[in-house]
Write a sequence for this structure.
């Protein structure tokens, strides 16, 4: 399926021959173009029939085709409970000094940050899901018998009401995406005197850092990826005051994506990435903070030291010419304001594929995530299987590993399988994630054997010169670990070659100077 494009002058014949089964949103002119191109001999009817066949094969598998009787009365209470549980599964514990979490003996917390009180359940625009309610941090904590300091709670709740009204009055009518989801409200300064007042009533402090984004509202570097000076100051002030009184500070990140942490993480005792966890968000966070749920999520992206550490940053459109990092090194960018494209010269080296291959230091690696318990990795094995499998529809490699809970609390572990390809031939990253699996809830001392399959064709890379997907024959290393930076076992396997031809169409319009090792 293509992306949504409102232009009706796209090269329809090339899209169809390339294998696009569904052109979105669809225009009468595209239908006319397909017919005309077939009649003129520029588009093969075989390609058209192939695409139609695949669409029909999809349609007959749908519940609607099979007569599923849908209802407009879903069980919303059950759905909410599923959301509450699933969001705790995805939360990532980045830091937990001296077993700060789960809370023990904490009865009252001072809750800082506007998003503690205006919790972001999801994104904006097309990234938004309309929800009947959102449980904020105050309510979630109250539901597990942890109260919040009354004065600070009243201050923030009054401010949130003011900020919402102000945003509504000031909103640009063109910012239609703000009507779909919760926009991020500005923070306000928390004074030293206010923090000292809260310190007398609280057993611990929680600072929530929120970030919002969505269609037509991409994130920026300053004040978004990087914390604002006001947010930095709030974390430092709260940490200095509470630590001086022997009390802990926890940061909760309420964001759908990465933020900079290296400049402030040493000030705080624990960091929990809650993401944007839906309508039950406050309850889900409270479950994790108090140990009712043990976090078992892992990072789905690398968290860098600085945004300029990403190879893609130099090619991404910026709204300014220069960006100065705190170490006084200056990075120059092209002034491409208004340009709606980017030359992806970083090529295959995106995210952890870049950081691992070029050995760049990061704040937190891809796949990282702590737990309230510990795990050991026992016997593991890798074997090639030539018979077909329902999941892979072809030959596959099977990986198994024994995981044991060696701690004192029940928990789950996510095992990740990375593959390092032979060095000769096509360029490849140092390693690539090819499979992962999560254990059941393991009690202390309990073990489970996880089995994962990697399809033979999933080892392929695109061979542009021959217009094909290619698995080169050779010895591949299968790496079993708890993150991209924490490999527990390695197995070498001889893998046979595999090719899959594709249509030689839709070429680059201009050459790229791509990044190479």
């Amino acid at each position: 399926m293509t992306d949504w494009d409102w232009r009706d002058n796209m090269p329809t014949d090339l899209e169809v021959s390339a294998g696009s089964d569904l052109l979105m949103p669809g225009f009468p002119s595209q239908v006319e173009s397909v017919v005309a191109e077939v009649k003129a001999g520029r588009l093969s009817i075989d390609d058209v029939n192939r695409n139609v066949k695949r669409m029909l094969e999809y349609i007959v598998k749908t519940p609607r085709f099979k007569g599923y009787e849908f209802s407009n009365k879903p069980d919303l209470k059950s759905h909410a409970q599923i959301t509450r549980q699933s969001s705790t599964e995805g939360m990532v514990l980045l830091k937990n000094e001296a077993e700060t979490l789960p809370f023990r003996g904490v009865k009252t917390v001072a809750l800082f940050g506007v998003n503690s009180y205006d919790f972001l359940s999801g994104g904006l625009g097309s990234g938004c899901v309309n929800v009947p309610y959102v449980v904020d941090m105050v309510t979630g904590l109250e539901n597990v018998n942890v109260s919040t300091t009354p004065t600070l709670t009243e201050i923030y709740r009054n401010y949130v009401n003011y900020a919402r009204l102000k945003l509504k009055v000031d909103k640009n009518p063109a910012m239609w995406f703000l009507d779909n989801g919760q926009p991020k409200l500005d923070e306000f300064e928390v004074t030293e005197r206010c923090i000292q007042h809260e310190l007398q009533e609280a057993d611990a402090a929680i600072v929530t850092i929120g970030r919002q984004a969505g269609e037509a509202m991409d994130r920026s570097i300053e004040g978004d990826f990087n914390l604002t000076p006001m947010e930095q100051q709030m974390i430092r002030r709260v940490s200095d005051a509470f630590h001086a009184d022997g009390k802990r500070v926890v940061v909760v990140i309420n964001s759908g994506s990465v933020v900079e942490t290296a400049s402030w993480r040493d000030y705080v005792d624990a960091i929990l990435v809650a993401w944007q966890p839906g309508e039950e968000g406050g309850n889900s966070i409270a479950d994790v903070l108090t140990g009712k749920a043990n976090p078992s999520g892992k990072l789905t992206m690398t968290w860098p030291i600085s945004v300029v550490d990403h190879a893609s940053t130099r090619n991404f459109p910026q709204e300014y010419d220069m960006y100065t990092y705190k170490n006084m090194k200056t990075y120059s960018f092209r002034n491409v304001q208004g340009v709606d494209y980017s030359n992806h010269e970083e090529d295959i080296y995106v995210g952890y594929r870049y950081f691992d291959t070029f050995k760049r230091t990061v704040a937190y690696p891809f796949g990282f995530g702590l737990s309230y318990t510990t795990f050991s990795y026992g016997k593991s094995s890798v074997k090639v299987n030539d018979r077909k499998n329902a999941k892979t529809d072809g030959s596959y490699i099977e990986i198994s590993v024994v995981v044991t809970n060696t701690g004192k609390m029940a928990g789950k572990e996510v095992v990740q399988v990375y593959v390092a390809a032979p060095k000769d031939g096509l360029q490849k990253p140092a390693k690539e994630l090819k499979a992962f699996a999560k254990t059941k809830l393991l009690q202390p001392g309990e073990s489970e054997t996880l089995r994962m399959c990697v399809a033979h064709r999933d080892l392929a890379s695109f061979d542009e010169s021959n217009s094909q997907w290619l698995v080169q024959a050779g010895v591949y290393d299968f790496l079993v670990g708890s993150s991209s930076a924490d490999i527990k076992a390695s197995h070498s396997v001889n893998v046979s070659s595999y090719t899959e031809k594709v249509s030689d169409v839709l070429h680059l319009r201009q050459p790229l100077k791509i990044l190479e090792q």
